[in-house]
Amino acid sequence: MGDIFFGVDYYPEHWERSRWETDAKLMQEMGIQTVRMAEFSWHKLEPQEGEYDFTWLDDAIALLAKYGIKTIVGTPSAAPPAWMINKHPDILPIDTMGRVRGFGGRHHDCQSNPTYREYIRKMVTKLAKHYGENENVIGWQPDNELGNSHFDLCTCDNCRKSFQNWLKDKYQTTDKLNQAWGTAFWSQEYNDFSEVFTPRITVTGENPSAMLDWKRFCSDLIIDFTKEQTDIIRKYAKNQFVTHNFMGFADKVDYYKLGELFDFVSHDQYPGGFYLPETATPHEKNHVLAATLDVIRGYKNQTYWLMEQQSGITGWETMGRAPAPGQLSVWALQSIAHGADAIVFFRWRTCAVGTEQYWHGILPHSGNPGRRYEELKTTMQEMLPLMKKMQGSMPKAEVGMVFSFEQDYAFQIQPHHKDLDYIGQVQKYYKALYDQNIPVDFISDKGDFSKYKLLVAPLQYLMNPKLEEKYMSYVKNGGHLILTMRTGVKDDNNLCMTDRELPGRLSEITGMEVLDYDCLRNAFVKVEYQGREYQANIWSDLMHLMPETEVMATYASEFYAGEPCITRHAYGDGCCYYIGTEPGEELMLQLMENICHGANVEKLADRIEDVEYMTRENASTRWLFVINHSDKRKEIPQITGYTMVKGKKMGVLEGYEVQIYEKLK
Ligand code: GLA
Ligand code: ZN
C-alpha cells in the first residue's frame, strides 16, 4: 500500500487534547507513518441518537497529517453505546443458555438484529461520506476482530428467523432438511422451517448435522454483517483500501470467505499472550506463531498487514511476561519474514482507563519514551529501506498444508478423543516441517494443489466427490500426498458414509482400506518405524492393504501389534501416504523428514534450536531471514551466495538477533 510500512493503533479520545501533538511528534521521530483510530468510539462519534460529531476525529487526523501520519478509520460497530442499548435492548445477544449478555464489555450485539444493522448503515454511510475523499485517510477497518467476544453466537429470535431463512435457501424443502440432518434419530423431524430452533443448551448431546449447519450459518452471518459495511465504504471511498484485523486460526468465521471482502487481510499477533498455556516454553510457541502468520498469508494467498503487533506486556486482569530486550523486534521481523508488508503496533500508549489498563503500549502509562520506544524506533529505521524493496514479495513454499474451517467445525462438534482438535493436529504436522526449516503454505481445499511437491492434508473427515477427485488427480499428476486417520468418514452433511470402507473412494490412491479402529482413550500405542519403537497417540486405524501397498510402520502394541500403521502407495506419477494414527513428536519428525526427502523438498537449513529460517522473494530478488528466538548467542553456518543486508556478524547470531540476507536472482 504505497509507502506505508509502520504504524500504531492510536486512541486520542482516551487522553487530553493537549497531549496529542506530543504524541504526533514522538510518532514521527520514531518512524510511524500511519495510525488506526476510532474502532470503538461510537459514543464519541454519535453521543446522542442522530447527533453525529466527527470534529474530534477530524482534528486528530489533521494534526497527525501535519506530522506526515496517515489514518486508517475503524468503524465502531464492535461497541454499540448505552443510549442505543437502552432504547433497543433486543440488540443485546442471547447466549446458548438463553441468558441475555449485558452492556459493559464490547461486542454486546446481535449481528442479525435489524435495528442495529440500520444504526450501523447510517453510521458507516456518514463516516464513509465524510472521510471517503480525505487525502489523509488511506484505508478502513470495519468493526474489530469479527467473531471475537462471541463465544456463543447469539441465539435470539432474530437469529432464529435468519437461520430458518438460511436453511430454506439451502434445502428448499423440509424433506431435504430432514434427510440432511438425519432427523429420524430421536424424533427430530420438522414439518416446517419455522419449527427449527437456534441451538440452546440441550438435555443431552446435540444433532451433529444441525450443529454443522449452525456454525456455517454463523460464519455466513458475520460475512453478511461485514459486507454491508464494506459495500458502503467502497461506494464513497474509492481510493482507500479496506482491510480487517483477523486472528490467525480463530474459528467463528471462514476467513477464506471473509477475506474476499478486503483488499488485503490484516492480523493481530500477540506472541506473549497471557492466555497461552502456562507450560508452553518459548520454543514450543515459535512454530505456532509461524503457523499463524502462514495461515494468514494463505487466506488470500498474498502478503498481509499486521494491524496489531504486540508492543509490550499483554494483560487484562492478569498479565503475561515482559518481552525481553530485542524480543518485540524479533516478533515484528518474524511477521515480516512470513509475508507482512506493514506492521501496526498495538498500542501507542498504555491506557490509564478501562479493561485494557495492563495491555501495554509502546509508551508506558507515563507517556515517556522508554526501552520499547527506542527498540522499535531502531527496528523501523533499519527496516524501512528493506520493507520498500520487499513489498509484495512472498515466501515460496514447496509444501502445502490443507486447512479448512469446515473440518475444524466438524471436530469441534465431535472431537472423538479429549486430546484431538483439528487445529492442534494441523499444527503438529506443521511443527515437523518448521523444525526442518521447510516453508509451508496453508491452502484451502478449494485452492490450487498443483504447485506443491508435497501436500499435507490431515483429518479430511468431511468428504465429497469433488474433493476426492482433486486429491486423486493431484497424486495422479505426480504429487506426494499425506492423508491421515479419520479421512472420508462423513459427507458434507456430517452424516457417516456407508457405501464403502474408509476412506471411501480415496482408497484407490491410499491403496488400503480401514476395516476397524481403536480410539486410544487414556492410552497410547507403540509403533515400529525403521527398526525403532516410537509412541503414537489418540487413534489407531486397522487396515487392509492392496498387494502393491508398502508398509512403512507397524503397530507394536495392543491386539493389533504387527499390523500396518503407516503406508505408502504409488499411484499415477505420484504417491499417497496414509498415517493411521497421530505420530508422537519424535516419530512425526522422523517420518516427515523422510517423506520430504522423498518428495525432493528443500530445507532452508539444518535445524538449530530456537533459530528460524524463512524466505521471501519476488521476480528479481530473494531474501533470507535468520531469526534467533532465544537470548543465547548461536553459531550458524555461513550463508553463501547472499549479501548480508541486516545483521552484525556472519556466522554468529546474538540473542534475539534477526539477520537478513539478499540475493539477486
Ligand atoms: C485485540 C483487539 C484490541 C485489543 C487487544 C488487546 O487484539 O483487537 O482491540 O483488545 O486485543 O486486548
Ligand atoms: Zn441474535
Task: Provide key terms for this protein.
Immunoglobulin-like, alpha/beta, TIM Barrel, binds zinc ion, nine-stranded parallel β-sheet, binds alpha-D-galactopyranose, Rossmann fold, ten-stranded mixed β-sheet, 665 residues
Largest sheet: 10 strands, mixed
Computed CA radius of gyration, to the nearest angstrom:
26 Å
Strand order of the largest sheet: 11-10-12-13-18-17-16-14-15-19
Bound molecules: alpha-D-galactopyranose, zinc ion
Beta-strand fraction estimate: 15-25%
- How many strand segments? 25
Secondary-structure content class? alpha/beta
CATH class of the largest domain: Alpha Beta
Please identify which CATH superfamily of the largest domain we are dealing with.
Glycosidases
Average of the residue pLDDT scores: 96
Q: Can you count the helices?
A: 17
The CATH architecture designation of the largest domain is Alpha-Beta Barrel
N-to-C span: 24 Å
Poorly predicted residue ranges: none
